[in-house]
Amino acid sequence: MVPERLSPAQARRTALAAQGFTDRRPSAAPTIAHLKRVVARTRLLQMDSVNIAARAHFMPLYSRLGPYDPDLLHRAAWRPSRGQRLLVEYWAHEAALIPVEDWPLFRWRMDEFADGRYRHTKDVMRRNRTLAVDVRAVIEARGASTPRAIEAELGIEREPGAAGSWWQRGEVKHLCEAMFAAGDLSAVRTDNFVRHYDLTERVVGPEIAGRHPDRADAQRELISQAARSLGVATAADLADYYRIRPADARAAVADLVDAGELLEVTVDGWRDTAYLAAGAPMPRRVNTSAILSPFDPLVFYRPRAERVFGFHYRIEIYVPEHKRVHGYYVLPYLLGTDIAARIDLKADRKNRTLLVLGSYCEPGHPHGRVAERLAADLRTFAGWLDLDGVSVAERGDLAGELRRVMQC
After folding, report:
1. Closest CA relative to residue 292, chosen from 51, 60, 57
2. Cα–Cα distances in Å, from 177 out to 56, 147, 148, 356, 379?
3. How far apart are CA 44 and CA 228, in angstroms?
4. pLDDT band at 162; cut points 50, 70, 90
């Protein structure tokens, strides 16, 4: 029998199950099949270039599977064997890896980004359509290429001081970005995260590249996927998952309710109507622990993280150091059904040590129990990063207990 009212605890357990945190972790080295299982739950892996601990797109797999060979993700997205690419990069929530078969569901967004995603990129494209044709011809002839390689092929020299940062990109880079946003180009990456642009049909295959589903149908499918990935969610949660406009998301939600794929429910303490995905599992208990990326889909929509877990979280990378509350790269720590702590981590690769620069227990959680579980998970995390040990600094109310446990 489907409930019409959920308690906050039921909503949390439903959300965690939908994201794969109640799935059994592999007893041996994770395989491509395990990667597929995780992606079937999350439907996306948000990307980020920050590598102070581990890049964001590698973390959701680790959080759900435990230590795995990062080469699994490289093979799934960028080095497919026998042409069996599983994941492709596009603008989903933000820049993300998505299943290849989902790529056509974003054709409506590609239409909106016909000249690029950002104003300056649009201006560059509109001024340089002939150059864009030349760029595409180089990629067609050479295969996957960096903007620098394309510039060299075309005999283009950058002005002095154009170092290639986001705000100092050459026009070729902006053109590649515009064509990527429009779906004309796709991209693959090297192990050091350098993007190489290629013709979309060579990356996703001509059959998938040729699909152009109706906008409303595609958005309805994306909202349906978001619902299954979230388990129980508000309309705002569902819209944010793939960054669909609220009005479009509401129309899709209404259609899915009519079709029986979404069920209107009340969650105690939630202000807005919630929608339960039909068939969403609601386990009696959740016994897991996981270090999460700041961009994990469990928490990347901050209003939902606060509503579901009572976890107020803001990433402080762009906050001046003297104004930071918790640290530069703070990761949530999931324990059971709660986000029980947050930790500021840095991989000191030169000294082969995982640095815990700050550690903070969330209100109401026993420091001793949290420290015991977190210490074990930090050791495992350090081993996955090929580091030899963990060093806990004194900052944070959990630091003293965590240091004591780590030294035992």
Report:
1. 60
2. 21, 10, 13, 36, 39
3. 12
4. low
Q: Tens of pLDDT along 32-41?
A: 999 999 999 9
**Whole-prediction pTM:** 0.94
Structure tokens at 51: 């590598």
The C-alpha atoms of residue 52 and residue 32 are separated, in whole angstroms, by 26
User: How crowded is residue 233: how many other Cβ atoms within 10 Å of its Cβ?
Assistant: 33
Q: Could you tell me which of 210, 219, 218, 181 has the C-alpha nearest to residue 197?
A: 181
CA torsion, points 19, 25, 29, 33, in degrees to nearest 10? -50
CB 67 within 8 A of CB 384: yes
Taking the C-alpha atoms of residue 354 and residue 294, their distance in angstroms, rounded to an integer, is 18
Side by side, the strands of the sheet bearing 353-361 are 289-291, 330-335, 338-348, 353-361, 389-392
pLDDT digit string, tens, across residues 198-249: 999 999 999 999 999 999 999 999 999 999 999 999 999 999 999 999 999 9
What is the rounded CA–CA span in Å between residue 191 and residue 193? 5
* Contact present, 240 and 282 (Cβ < 8 Å): no
Name the residue with tokens 């308690």: 7
